[in-house]
Design brief:
Strand content of chain B: 25-35%
Radius of gyration of chain A: 66 Å
Oligomer: heterodimer
Distance between the termini of chain A: 125 Å
Shape of chain A: rod-shaped
Shape of chain B: globular
Order of helices and strands of chain A: HHH
Number of helices of chain A: 3
Largest interface: A-B, 22 and 25 residues
Number of helices of chain B: 5
Number of strands of chain B: 7
Largest sheet of chain A: none
Radius of gyration of chain B: 16 Å
Chain lengths: 239, 184
């Protein structure tokens, strides 16, 4: 075999191999062409489904927009109503605060007026001192009266003795002296009773006026506390 | 009506007051005991003070005689005879002592009752106290306080109730502490 024949043989073999490979390729492409048809069919089906979904989405979008518009209108109405409610509430609150402040000021005035009660309590205390002084003067007068009565008793005793000395002629005088002594004894017992009464009066007077004085302090103290609370309320209302 | 517990509390509060006031600057109160008979009290004068509340009226009476020993104890001026002899100075000192005694009692009462207040003291004659029943007290008790130097003082507590009086009270820690401090 010469060289030319060998070359031709190799060329022929190459061509045959190429033709074989091309046949295989063509077979593959043919198979692919069958899948593409299916794919196209699937694509068509999907496109139809997609269109249907698009329409559905559009319908939902339309519905959403309608709802949104409706809600927007509702929100505007609600906002307007809410503003009106808040304004009303604020107005009422402002009015209530102004009224409460006015009442608090009135209360403060009343409390200050009541605190002037302290002057009344001082007046009562001064009256008590006058009463005590008056009682003391009555004690002194009663002591003097008791002293006179004691002296009278001694005098009547002396008179009785003198009447006894005078004998028959002094009988009438003795009766008078005895009567005088009886009267003096009664006066003495009255004076003692009066003295006890004055002491009892001192105790009742002192207790009563001390009670008034302490009660007065208690009331003033309560009013002062009330005033402090009221001032705090006023501060809270104005702040 | 004043409950037994309230009566006991009033008595204990007064005991605190007596210990805080009647010892003077030279002695301390070593004993406070109840006395049943007012006739035991021989003093010529008394100083009286009142604590008022919505529920009750409490009268406190401290008996004294304006003798030399008492004057020196309460005026507390050593060697200043003119001050000791001066009635006004002595009576002021007695009133102040009564104020301190009642102030202690009032402070304790204020821990229980929100509204209590005390009067200023007044001097009365001892004979006035024969008529204490006139005050219609629901609790009337006399006490004898003895100092560590042997001096004796008499005190009367008379509480008139206008409603049921019953309350719980315990001696405050600070009160006990201040009582202990006074012993020094």
């Amino acid at each position: 075999m010469d060289n030319t024949t060998a070359v031709l043989l190799i060329a022929a073999l190459s061509i045959a191999a190429y033709l074989g490979w091309s046949v295989v390729q063509l077979k593959g492409q043919l198979a692919s062409m069958v899948n593409a048809e299916e794919a196209n069919a699937e694509q068509q089906r999907l496109l139809i489904q997609l269109d249907a979904q698009d329409q559905e989405i559009q319908a939902l979008r339309d519905e959403c927009e309608q709802n949104h518009s409706a809600l927007k209108v509702g929100a505007i109405d609600l906002h307007q109503e809410s503003d009106a409610g808040e304004i009303g509430l604020l107005e009422r609150s402002r009015h209530a605060s102004a009224t409460a402040l006015g009442d608090s000021n009135d209360l403060a005035g009343e409390i200050l007026a009541l605190l002037e009660l302290a002057k009344t309590f001082e007046r009562w205390h001064a009256d008590m001192n006058e009463l005590v002084i008056h009682n003391r003067e009555m004690h002194e007068k009663n002591d003097e009266f008791a002293s006179i009565v004691k002296h009278m008793i001694i005098v009547t005793l002396n008179a009785s003795i003198e009447a006894a000395r005078a004998g028959q002629s002094g009988r009438g005088f003795a009766v008078v002296a005895d009567e005088m002594r009886t009267l003096a004894s009664r006066a003495e017992s009255l004076s003692d009773g009066y003295r006890h009464g004055l002491h009892q009066n001192d105790l009742i007077t002192t207790t009563t006026f001390q009670d008034l004085q302490a009660g007065g302090k208690m009331i003033i103290s309560s009013l002062t506390r009330l005033n402090l609370i009221n001032n705090k309320i006023k501060d809270d209302l104005t702040s | 009506m004043i409950s037994t517990r309230a009566q006991k509390n009033f008595d204990q509060m007064l005991t605190l007051g007596i210990k805080a006031s009647l010892g003077g600057s030279t002695s301390t109160i070593s004993e406070v005991e109840p006395v049943t008979n007012l006739k035991d009290i021989k003093d010529t004068h008394a100083v009286m003070i009142t604590v008022a509340s919505f529920l009750f009226r409490l009268s406190l009476i401290i008996y004294f005689s304006p003798d030399e020993e008492t004057r020196r104890r309460f005026v507390g001026v050593d060697g200043d005879d003119s001050a000791v002899a001066d009635d006004q100075t002595f009576f002021d000192a007695i009133r102040e002592c009564c104020n301190v005694c009642c102030g202690t009692l009032n402070r304790e009462l204020a821990r229980v009752f929100p509204h209590v207040a005390m009067s200023t003291p007044n001097i009365i004659e001892r004979e006035c106290c024969y008529h204490l029943e006139t005050l219609k007290g629901g609790h009337l008790q006399h006490f004898r306080a003895t100092t560590d130097t042997g001096s004796k003082f008499y005190v009367t507590l008379c509480v008139r109730d206008y409603a049921t009086v019953d309350f719980e009270w315990t001696m405050a820690q600070e009160t006990e502490s201040s009582g202990e401090l006074e012993l020094f």
